[in-house]
Specification:
The protein has one helix and 25 strands. The protein has about 350 residues and is an all-beta fold.
């Protein structure tokens, strides 16, 4: 079993300057950051999502410009194109991106339009260093929009379905309403149809009772997890099961109330505001905005709040998204130009940290 008793000593001997974490639970397995951050891209404006392509390039979305940018494998950053129909405002704009692993001819995007939030897909043309996007085709529309609580993360699950996080759009009581698409995690086919095995008949709703979920990921067993912004008390890391109710606005955090699923891990809202979520090397990594750090969660959060380990507190400001980089590294996308934090030098950045196994004690 991998253990962490010797983490501080190992980092010192290796000459690394990564901020030391809080203590993980005993007998933890997984990975940890090591060394210093390397800047992959800078001078970004309200970046929201980054996805890697099989070609070696990556796409980055900018919320307030509606631009998709390409980071080439050589480190060049260029504009791919503007997504038509996006109307940025408040926390809305061009949000999550995804590529269908079974059809890389389409880029999927979560967007804020004039009357709603929606998921669109855009044909991708060209190749590394010359990618372009065509006109958007609507996949799913009618998601409620607001100045905040827009959700916005999209990802293809191991079942080939598209999962979408939709915030309550400032109408908390409707997170319990199956006719309202806000305050939900949604599941549709790549074309936007309702899968036959969804938990509610003829509905894209997969789970309900969410406030503002913004991170989704799957472990090696294909089990789904999500992060969620709380209101005044608790942010959450949840195990997501089809048809389950996560309690908002009736409960926030762990209350043990029958009929609602309690979070595996919860944080004070000042310590997290969890956005992106990634699963790398047996470890969940959570991007924290207000908390200005990355949380690492070991053992799928099975040991409760003690499963969560804090990294990089205050080192990079607000962190919007995390994803796996090449060779199992950790990519961080900062969010210091979104109007909620102090804008820093070089505006916002895409950073990378190497990851290594937890040190044996």
């Amino acid at each position: 079993m991998k253990r962490v008793a010797a983490v501080a000593l190992a980092l010192l001997l290796a000459g690394c300057s990564t901020p030391a974490p809080t203590t993980p639970p005993p007998d933890s397995e997984g990975v940890q950051p090591r060394g210093d951050a390397t800047v992959l891209a800078s001078d970004l404006t309200t970046p929201w999502s980054v996805i890697r392509l099989d070609s070696g390039s990556s796409f980055i979305s900018e919320r307030d410009t509606a631009l998709v940018k390409e980071l080439t494998s050589e480190g060049e950053v260029r504009e791919v194109g503007t997504v038509d129909g996006v109307e940025p405002g408040g926390e809305g704009g061009l949000l999550g991106l995804a590529m269908n692993p079974d059809d890389d001819g389409w880029l999927y995007a979560y967007t804020t339009a004039a009357s709603d939030n929606r998921v669109v897909r855009l044909p991708v043309e060209g190749g590394p260093g010359s990618y372009a996007i065509g006109a958007p085709e609507v996949v799913l529309s009618g998601l409620p929009k607001s100045g905040n609580h827009n959700g916005g993360r999209i990802a293809f699950g191991p079942d080939g379905m598209l999962y979408i996080t939709a915030g309550d759009a400032g109408q908390p009581e409707r997170a319990q309403d199956l006719e309202y698409l806000g305050g939900k995690i949604l599941r549709v086919t790549p074309e936007g149809d309702v899968p036959d095995d969804n938990p509610f008949d003829d509905s894209p709703v997969f789970t309900l009772g969410h406030r503002n979920p913004q991170g989704i990921a799957w472990n090696d067993d294909g089990e789904m997890f999500a992060t969620e912004f709380g209101q005044n008390t608790w942010d959450e890391f949840n195990a997501i099961e089809s048809g389950s109710n996560y309690g908002w606005p009736i409960v926030e955090g762990r209350e043990g109330e029958e009929g609602f699923v309690d979070p595996l891990v919860q944080w004070a809202t000042s310590d997290a505001s969890p956005s992106g979520l990634a699963y790398i090397g047996g470890t969940f990594f959570v991007a924290a905005l207000r908390g200005e750090r990355v949380w690492a969660i070991y053992g799928d959060g099975a040991q409760g709040d003690g499963s969560a380990v804090s990294w990089f507190e205050g080192a990079h400001g607000r962190i919007r998204h995390v994803t796996e980089g090449p060779d199992g590294s950790l990519w961080l996308l900062t969010s210091n130009t979104d109007g909620n934090g102090d804008q820093r030098d070089d505006a916002d950045q895409l950073l990378v940290y190497e990851l290594g196994e937890l040190v044996e004690g």
